[in-house]
Design a protein that fits this description.
This protein is of the alpha/beta class. The protein has 14 helices and 19 strands. The protein binds pyridoxal-5'-phosphate.
């Protein structure tokens, strides 16, 4: 077992910059995190036909890739049910876009989200399978969530009393959220037994599951696993029902088979990105990026030597050279850092992003000839070339692959292809 940080979010291509690990990435002061918009209860209506002509950006969800990744995760997990994590607008794919599609897949046993709005949007978009809200439900939302059968995570010492007071006719479905050492959410394992006892004894609650999460630090994960097992043993000894046990995110699916328990709980792998060590994970089981960010070229122009592009004049032409302007920017979720090595696919060719990525535009250099025309489709992110696949792009420009997907703007129209 290796120790130390997992080199996460890498390119997988030789010659690319060193990938960043998720924790190192979060610690890096230089990182600019785009503000996160709330999950919309409904994504904008999209008509496939309109995508054939629109120049404004759009997002395509590749249904075949999604199905392939689900099958791959199921295989890696010994066919255990998958609780699909669809937080942050399903990692950019769009909750309402993929809800019914995931729900219909027999390998999917249920869903997990981190916001009340996401749970509601998911149910209202056609998901019929169990939904777990891995967050504190506000008192005012408990009834609405209960109406939709959403399972509530409990961990606060007063949660049993609080929910008893809010429950009505039927018992509320709940899951124990155990903090085995991540130190982010949940009840510390060494203090958990009294809550488990109280919930088990309550007529107002039905315990459907017990879960924990890993810090994704190989050696420490083993310690967390040991603590989780010890709690399970203590509860079982007292005949406390824990329901379905689950712990493994995508990293755990790939690297921690001992944590697969009764179900696995991955997010990013379902959407076709490797969670921690892309080369190693690809060798174990190949994923297919299930999302494309696209738009059409809106301007083609030749620069003269000395002409610059965009804010800051970070790029100044040293010769006559052609450029194409694309109506995609950081407000759409395309990272500002793309100028540090990001490339865009147009007409089967890759072109470098130059100058600056502004809120709604970026510019690519297309060479000595006008190799693109107004109306040509540009793909920024997707399966179509290794350079624009999520892990590669993230690694090339030095951002987290999680950020790359989760920052795709919820307001972009989404279409399933
Ligand atoms: C509690 C919990 N479980 C599972 C996941 C899924 O993680 P991943 O996308 O790395 O598979 C997340 C997402 O970060 C999470 O917060």
């Amino acid at each position: 077992m290796e120790s130390g940080p997992n080199p996460e979010h890498g390119s997988g291509l030789s010659g690319m910059p060193t990938p960043l690990d998720r924790r190192a990435f979060l610690a890096a002061a230089a990182v600019v995190l785009a503000p996160r918009s709330p999950a919309p209860r409904r994504a904008p209506e999209v008509h496939v036909q309109r995508e054939a002509t629109r120049s404004d950006p759009w997002i395509e969800v590749d249904a075949a890739a999604l199905a392939l990744n689900i099958a791959t995760v199921a295989r890696l997990s010994g066919s255990r049910p998958i609780l699909a994590v669809v937080k942050n607008n399903a990692y950019g794919l769009g909750i309402s876009t993929i809800a019914a599609r995931l729900d219909a897949n027999s390998a999917i046993g249920g869903f997990a989200v981190v916001r009340t709005d996401e749970a509601i949007a998911l149910r209202d978009s056609g998901a019929r399978k169990p939904i777990l809200l891995m967050a504190r439900a506000a008192d005012a939302d408990v009834r609405e969530l209960a109406t939709r059968g959403v399972e509530l995570a409990i961990w606060a010492e007063d949660d049993v009393k609080r929910l008893e007071a809010l429950s009505r006719d039927a018992p509320l479905p709940v899951q124990f959220y155990i903090d085995s050492g991540m130190g982010r959410m949940g009840l510390p394992d060494y203090r958990a037994l009294p809550l488990l006892r109280a919930a088990a004894a309550s007529r107002a609650l039905t315990v459907t599951g017990t879960f924990t999460e890993f810090a994704e630090s190989a050696e420490y994960d083993q310690e967390q696993l040991r603590r989780f097992h010890a709690l399970i043993a203590a509860a079982t000894n007292e005949r406390i029902r824990l329901g379905r046990l689950h712990a493994a995110s995508s990293n755990g699916v790939y690297h921690l088979p001992a944590a697969h328990f009764d179900a696995v709980r991955p997010g990013i792998a379902l959407y076709g990105a490797y969670p921690s060590r892309p080369d190693e994970e690809r060798a174990k089981a190949v994923l297919q990026p299930a999302v494309r960010l696209r738009a059409r070229v809106v301007r083609v122009e030749r620069l003269r030597p000395g002409d610059g592009v965009s804010y800051g004049r970070n790029y100044v032409a040293d010769r006559h050279v052609w450029t194409a302007t694309l109506p995609v920017g950081h407000s759409d979720g395309y990272p500002r850092e793309a100028v540090k090595g990001g490339r865009v696919l147009i007409n089967g060719r890759l072109f470098p992003v130059i100058g600056a990525v502004s809120a709604s535009h970026c510019i690519v250099e297309i060479g000595d000839e006008p190799a693109a025309a107004i109306g040509d489709v540009a793909t920024f992110l997707g399966p179509d070339d290794p350079a624009i696949q999520p892990n590669t792009l993230a690694g090339a420009v030095g951002v987290s692959v999680y950020d790359l997907l989760m920052h795709l703007s919820p307001s972009l129209p989404r279409v399933i292809v």
